[in-house]
Amino acid sequence: MAERGTSKVEVKVFAEKLFAAGREVGFDAMEAYVASRNLFRVGVFKSEIDSYTLAQSRGLSFRGLINGRMGYSFTENLSEDSVALLVDDARANAAVIDSEDPEEIFGGSPEATYADVCSFSPALEQVLAAEKIAWVKEVEQQAYGLDVRVSTVQVSLGNSSGETMLMNTKGLNLAHQGNFADGYVAAVVKEGEDTKSAYAFFSSRDFSRFDPVTLSKEAVDEAISLLGAESIESGQYPVLLRHDVAGEFLATFASSFSAEAVQKGLSLLKDKQGEQIMSSNVTIIDDPHLPERPNSAPFDAEGVATASKEVVAAGRLMTLLHNLKTAKKDGVNSTGNAYKMAFNAPVTVAPTNLYIQPGKRDYADLVAHIEHGLIIIAVQGTHSGANPVSGDFSLSAYGYLVQGGQVVRPVNQVTIAGNFFKMLSDVQEVGNDLHFKMGSIAAPSLLIGSLAVSGK
Amino acid sequence: MLAKPLLEDILLAGLSTGGDFAEVFVEDRFSTILSMIGGKVDSGVSGRDYGIGVRILKGTNYVYAYTNDYSRDNLIKVAKEAAAAISPETISRNITLSFMKDEPLHINPIRIYPHEIVKQDKVSLMARAYHAAKEYDPVISQVMVRYFDEDQKVQIANSLGLYVEDERVRTRTAITAIASKGPEKQSGTYAPGAHMGFEFYDNIKIEDYAQEAARIASTMIHAPYAPSGRIPVIIDNEFGGVIFHEACGHSLEATSVAKKTSVFADKLGEKIASSVVSAVDDGTIPNAWGSLNVDDEGHVSQRNLLIEAGVLKGYMVDLYNGRRMNVPATGNSRRQSYKFAPTSRMTNTFILPGSHTREEIIASTEYGLFARYMGGGSVNPATGEFNFAVNEGYMVRNGKLAEPVRGATLIGQGSDVLLKIDMVADNLACGQGMCGSISGSLPADVGQPTIRVSEMIVGGRKGDK
Lengths: 456, 465
Known about the structure:
The structure holds two protein chains of two kinds.
Chain A: H1 7-25, E1 29-45, E2 48-66, E3 69-75, H2 82-96, H3 122-126, H4 129-146, E4 150-168, E5 173-191, E6 194-204, H5 212-225, E7 235-241, H6 243-253, H7 259-263, E8 284-286, E9 309-313, E10 316-317, H8 324-330, E11 338-339, E12 348-349, E13 354-356, H9 363-368, E14 372-380, H10 382-385, E15 392-403, E16 406-419, H11 420-424, E17 427-430, E18 441-442, E19 446-454
Parallel strand pairs in A: 7-14, 13-18
Antiparallel strand pairs in A: 1-2, 1-4, 2-3, 4-5, 5-6, 7-19, 8-9, 8-13, 9-10, 11-12, 14-15, 15-16, 16-19, 17-19
Helix pairs in contact in A: 1-2, 4-5
Chain B: H1 4-14, E1 21-37, E2 40-58, E3 61-67, H2 72-86, E4 100-102, H3 119-134, E5 140-158, E6 162-181, E7 184-190, E8 193-194, H4 200-203, H5 206-221, E9 229-235, H6 242-249, H7 254-257, E10 279-282, E11 303-308, E12 311-312, H8 319-325, E13 333-334, E14 343-344, E15 348-351, H9 358-363, E16 367-379, E17 385-397, E18 400-405, E19 409-413, H10 414-420, E20 421-424, E21 429-437, E22 440-448, E23 451-459
Parallel strand pairs in B: 4-6, 9-16, 15-22
Antiparallel strand pairs in B: 1-2, 1-5, 2-3, 5-6, 6-7, 6-8, 9-23, 10-11, 10-15, 11-12, 13-14, 16-17, 17-18, 17-19, 19-23, 20-23, 21-22
């Protein structure tokens, strides 16, 4: 898609008009936050292109302080008549706010603290649609060729580029550009009535890293390995959470580290700073400057300079994650974790790139360590079967049974249940296999001493 | 909204390389979200989503493009880029479009539009809900109330001559109560909503829903963990229908049926459920949360019979997947916004009433789990494996409800569970949910009478069987 060359100037002119209109009705400080994005995605089914998306979108979020209260509004329509709508809506929204913890429009971090984060690869923009289509078709063909039991393959590949701009009446004027590519290979295999499926996810800024052979094999091999799965006897088992599952757990319970959740009584980590909350072999880092990740940025959603931090060091809670409002309430500095779920969402708190620091043992070594236990390679229903407030979870899961350090058979139709913090206090070993596959939260494989498994 | 001549030009540009179908979807949506915690409004956001989606089909190839730069030049450019992706060569042909304006039946009459109500009145409603929940029981430590309304205007035109305008007004208020005891926390949620204006809140008493959320949380904070094992499960009416939605509904959407990735593909006329099970997807219930006047392809919404006495009778089909399946669309094509291509989705999906009563079902169960309120769940459409959280559960012993239990998860296989439903009660009710799938997150009603599944895997925390 063609760039909108004039857009930056256009947005600045629009913001100036907006600020002028806001001043007239009594806003003291105001901010315009603009996100624009171009997107391409292609999917193939039985060598036909069955989905193909081209997109350009842009949205502006306005917020401003009036009588000490912050009002929000947004639009995707940057026409002249949106100015009055934005100002009126924000004013009406501010009028009903009665939270005593005021938000602020930020004057800026010291210039030198804004890191130079490179999130844009010009080479990725040069990859032609035809190359991407050919790539997707090749992956599909590879996957079908791997095994006669492969019944359906779906492959999707996409890339997007975008820019975030933040301008306010306190003189802050920030912009950050990025691009990224990602996708998945989904394989369904059948043997008689037995159907199993598996995914291989991938993401990078470097298209040449996506290897059709490796990715198709990853999805197909895993699906085949699950054929013939059965449940197991209920009981307490040592459990190896494969890296992607460990990452999913961390993502599900990451909100516990948000100072906002703590202040609202929605986290168990209230008054836990400095205390041992997990096993001493667990260290959790939030690093907003990782070069390969799409979320990496020099500033957060309020314009505060971002920095890497240890959230948990050797099991001890070092800091909560803060934005300006939560930091003010706790009498600390913002950790640069202000976050907007979408351009038009209110400012909350979230990690940028959160991960558990990898250990030394590789995956095979961890498996060899298990006398009689389970490897969990997928959990389902984290949005319903896990409670981020209490840490409790009970999730449908599948994987493999391990005996004497060897995988003996696939296992499904089981649930694993426990409490996230108790589970992370029972981490026996941390793997060295940290991979960010999709999303911005990841972990290496974790060997858990004992977990309740329900099956037969 | 776009003028008809411009719509025609976009469609013609879309067909310029040999596509056999082109469609324009224009969306202009105003929405408001207010959130209250601890009785205080801590955020209020409102605004306008605006954009245009262009879809082009050629056989079973398709391209979707969207933009919110609505200038004529850009829209024609976007349509041409999409057309170029369908085929590189421009074909000159003579196409005349003549739009037939469809006046959809307004099955969802709106009396009070969201913009006619001042924000303070919305806040007063939230405050009523907050107080009702907070004051229910001293163990309630925190209450969150989230108010939502939207007014979505859409314009849909396609190269077959269809032209439809529609307006969808919805509102919903979600109340989450949290009960605390020492370091433990349990939550209860209730979130009534409708395809209706602010008059919805004259029809319901918000306090009742808030107290119910608080009752669930305060019951669960005192409850022990559920046991594990394979036992009979009674699933109560209303939101309990999420089991059917997840375990069966998604597998009856053409999205997976057309590609034969669904366990129910090629099974029309076959017995897929126990004979006490009949089910429908009905987008025509006036003002129901998942109802539509027309779907997002402009088709008038329908009531579709899915299962009759255990026999598979129909699927939910959109135009594109209907081409693969060689069947007409059923008014189920939906999308979250212009940022998504539409596909077959559920509207209001529920199991029809049976002949028993809830009391009879409990009385005839010697030992099992009674799932009074279900949480969300998910399903793998390829394998049919699903999971659901039980938000409020009770043990059943000797035909009577016994102690409440927390933390239970129900897992199983959709096709298997449908065959194991052995009793269906007469108390059909629906609950509101947001359903996520490839065309985004959509309002959908789930529903059922109280049902019993003869055997299901319950995953709990207690290691016993």
